[in-house]
């Protein structure tokens, strides 16, 4: 017998449920209780994992902040005493940039009779 033949369009949902129960009878009550118990156990495991993930995300954010703080303080990697200070480097860059700007300026040349 074709399964689709058991389901007819019916405005009454209860009759559809009874049709479904006739084709697929529910398992015995002890088995239903066992299924519910297993589902609850698995939900408990999921909740534990969610807690661990939340805790790990918070720890990762704290670690990220700590790394950024150490980087800005210059404590992330060993410092080379031979490195020039940032102020001198910035001044040198400013001077080099000014030189480049002066080289790239177009000189105006007068052409014509009224020089």
From TrEMBL:
BP terms from Gene Ontology: DNA restriction-modification system
Single GO molecular function: DNA binding
Keyword DNA-binding: yes
Gene3D superfamilies (alphabetical): DNA methylase specificity domains (3.90.220.20)
InterPro entries associated with the record: Restrct_endonuc_typeI_TRD_sf (IPR044946), Type-I_RE_S_subunit (IPR051212)
Residues making up the signal peptide according to the UniProt record: none
Keyword DNA-binding in annotation: yes
Segments for region (Disordered): 1-29
Source organism of this protein record: Thermodesulfovibrio yellowstonii (strain ATCC 51303 / DSM 11347 / YP87)
Keywords: DNA-binding, Restriction system
Protein name: Type I restriction enzyme EcoAI specificity protein
Polar residues bias (residue ranges): 1-21
């Amino acid at each position: 017998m074709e399964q689709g033949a058991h389901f007819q369009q019916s405005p009454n949902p209860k009759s559809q449920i009874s049709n479904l129960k006739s084709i697929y009878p529910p398992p015995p009550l002890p088995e239903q209780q066992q299924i519910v118990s297993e589902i609850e156990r698995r939900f408990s495991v999921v909740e534990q994992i969610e807690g661990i993930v939340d805790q790990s995300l918070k720890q990762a954010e704290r670690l990220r902040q700590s790394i950024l703080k150490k980087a800005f303080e210059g404590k992330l990697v060993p410092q080379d005493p031979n490195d020039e200070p940032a102020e001198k480097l910035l001044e040198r860059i400013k001077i080099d940039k000014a030189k480049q700007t002066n080289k790239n300026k177009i000189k105006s040349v007068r052409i014509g009779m009224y020089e």
